[in-house]
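Could you help me review a protein record that somebody else here produced? This is what I was given.
***
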Amino acid sequence: MNPHPYLRAFLAGVFVPTLILPVLLCVFIVVRLVLESPFPIERGLVFPLALVPALWGLWNMLWEWSHPSTHLPLGLHGAFLPCLLGPAGTLLATHLGVLELGVSSVTWFHAVQIPYAAVGVCFAVAVAAYYLVWKYVVGFVNRTLGIA
């Protein structure tokens, strides 16, 4: 018997971003307060700090629910998550005025221009990183909690 598998799947999914986001918060504090960054980074942190851990937990619950019928490997399942987070983050950032989509580049905080080629490379790196983190770290936590 496996009591509360979805609760344990949620907690296993939340584990990784809950460990990483405080590190990002420390980087934010250093950039904003110590280096006196001229653009408001905190507006870009609302989405990751508020939603990403919960989405990782829900995504792991979805894997736990669908795995008996789909048999999709956990790493591949995790690699699909940036395909949802990227467009959702872009939509939110454009509506908050943090991001502007141009013809050949993205303008971040009205100060930094990033060409679309660099955005594509970063997205590919993010997909690969998510694959590895989900396969090894979330998979380890899932096995430790007895749901994999």
Observations:
- The beta strands are 99-101, 105-108, 112-115.
- The chain has a mean pLDDT of 88.
- The CA atoms of residues 28 and 42 lie 8 Å apart.
